[in-house]
Write a structure and sequence with these properties.
This protein is an alpha/beta fold. 38% of the residues lie in helices and 17% in strands. The protein binds iron/sulfur cluster.
Length: 149
């Protein structure tokens, strides 16, 4: 089981993620749209869950890629594999990757996975669990890491 590094900040013990800039070549990088609707929030939570439990995977900053931040574009280009999670049929995260020349290995769209797009930030944890496990199975991502959520 992968060890989770910790840092004590303000008296709290925080779990550290691997550096996406330095370690992208060894990581499955997840870019979620984090849209302000049910489906965007499910996608973001799925990305968090895969980051917390998946071995060798972590989410990175989709907005920074969209803004053209060179380090973030490059970590996408250098990633072992890129997994994109869109909220709805607009597929904003996928479009960002295409515009910045980042190759997408796996693309998911939450609204096509039995989740309705509703103008709310609320979501069903069961949807998150179901979709995270489906993505892990299809990509071969191992979810054995101790949860850090
Ligand atoms: S893909 Fe849909 S949910 Fe995600 S940011 Fe775009 S419009 Fe919003």
């Amino acid at each position: 089981m992968e060890e989770v590094k910790k840092e004590v900040t303000g008296g709290k013990s925080w779990n550290l993620l691997p550096s996406c800039g330095k370690e992208a070549g060894n990581l499955d990088i997840i870019f979620a749209c984090d849209g302000a609707a049910s489906v965007g929030q499910v996608g973001n939570q799925v990305a968090r869950d895969l980051t917390n439990r998946g071995i060798g995977a972590r989410m990175c900053c989709t907005t920074a890629v969209g803004a053209g931040s060179e380090p973030h574009v490059n970590l996408g280009k250098n990633a072992k594999r890129v997994i994109v999670i869109n909220g709805c049929a607009n597929k904003c995260a996928s479009k960002i990757m295409e515009q910045r020349g980042v190759k997408v290995d796996y693309e998911y769209t939450i609204s096509e996975m039995e989740v309705k797009k509703v103008p709310t930030l609320d979501f069903d944890e069961e949807d998150v669990k179901r979709i995270a496990e489906k993505i892990a199975e299809e990509t071969g991502l191992n979810l054995n890491k101790k949860s850090v959520s």
